[in-house]
Structure formats: C-alpha cells, structure tokens
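Q: Hi! First time doing this. I have a protein sequence and I read that you can turn it into a structure. Is that right? Here it is:
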Amino acid sequence: MNTIVDANKTKQGRPEALALAQSVEVIHVAKGKKCVTLDLASQRPDDDTLAGMMLGPTGNLRAPTIKHGKTLYVGFNEDAYKALIGK
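A: Yes, that's right. Below is the predicted 3D structure, encoded as structure tokens:
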C-alpha cells in the first residue's frame, strides 16, 4: 500500500522526519549529484545530523521522499531511483 502526502498541504517537520527515520533501516539522501547512504542498522547518526540531512532550508522534509519497505529515499538522485524501479 502506498501513501502519497502533498508536501504543499501537509508539512513534515523535524519530529515527523525523525519518526520516519526510526521506521527504516537504510536512508539514501540525495543533494544534486551527490548521494549518501546511511545504514541505520549498523551506525545511526545523532538526531541533529539526521535531521540536517533530511530537512530542507524551510525546516520541512525534503522532496521527493519515498519509503520503500525498510528503505527511505530523500531528495532526487536519478541513479538511486533507477535502482529503486529496477532499470
């Protein structure tokens, strides 16, 4: 089951971002062409570091954000999304 949340209508701030991070094992964070992968099962950064990576300048969760199983994709990276859809 997929849930789509319109970021223009429903703001997702720090508490929501950290709760989302608690529900996954891996996070891929993309900014431009750079993509950082965090394996939360083996080494979880502190909340300030995690929030800094997941939130944009307005303090809201960066878009697009996709949760796929136990993996979270934050921001857009073409290679990461190709891997997600299997192409």
